[in-house]
Amino acid sequence: MRFAKKFKNTFHLTIWEATIAIAAIITFFILEKVVYHDAENVPTFLIIFGFIVGIWLAFRPSEWAVEGLNSGAKYVGLSEYVAGVLSSLASNLPEAVIAILLLIEGYQLMAVVTVLSAAGFNAIILGIAIIIATIKKKGKIAVPEDLEKKEAPIIRWAIVALLMTVVFGFIEYFQVDQLDQAVLTRPVAGLLATSYLFYLIYLIVVKDTNNKISLKNHEEQKTVEDVDETKEKEEDDHSTHDRLPVWLTILLLVLGFVGIYFGGETLTWSVMQLTEGGGVGIGEIGLALILGAAGSVPEHGIAVISAAKDEIEVGIGNAMGGILQSALLIFGILGVFVSITLHPFILLQIAAIACSLWFVKRCIQDKKFDTFEGIMIILLQILVFVILFEDIAFFA
After folding, report:
1. Which residue has the higher pLDDT, 220 or 154?
2. Model-level pTM?
């Protein structure tokens, strides 16, 4: 019993779930790599099975990678906030892996839409997290301190950069004869990715002791001495209780990143089978939306569960990190390696992300989130998806 409890606390799953998952993964790869490897028509049940296995591999290993990064950050002396940003990067890896594999297979549009739609789903999750938190707090919550002080500059830059990218796309449309000739140039894409990399470097290199904790009660008045004592106590508690043994930290990182890769590969394989079989009537962009939703499963779970547990900073911070990393870093990196065609939905989704970030910026200015703002963020992204399905996806 003690071993089962320790196993569950370490890997966030029961022995029964681990046993069933391992059996399912082995069975799927035997069927996919051996039994139906050269088959012209893959059975529908195997495709559905692949989606289930892929989503599990995208979710659970991401949790392990996050746990390993949090522990590793403490060994090298990074602040709690920086560790949280790096953990958010780990939870965004599934869609990055999926996008890279799609590019290798030659599905450029699907790769880009997968990344941007993942940012869209993160916007929906941000709204849901705000609604859950505000309902529990009877209408409104204070903006998390780290979001106010550390994310605000990159949010302002992201709004301007993304809107300029949309303007660039319209300018491209005026200069070409056909829409498929309008492309995002590598310098523009490189600047999007570089901006977020500079932000990460700033967080890691610039010493700021205010990053190391996030005070949970923003309303209670404290003296400077009380704040310093609280910081020291929390730092001691984190270093004593949250840092895992070195061997376990490495194990979680290895299992996490390996699992994320195979999760991305499995989901990509499943979508490839649907595409080759006619795409079940929803086109490449519709399938990319499914991949974007599946790839952002880790952020969904972390944000919603954290908001339900009153861990506002974790829930909202993870969703915000997912939006910024998908829209700036991953999208920018893809644009550096391939010339991204500025499909109408790509511009529409980029504009929607910028508008969602504008909502957040306004909330930061008045230092509070309320239920209405959470609903508006959700409705904005749903509007984009409705436009997509009505006018674009089925004809791509």
Report:
1. 154
2. 0.76
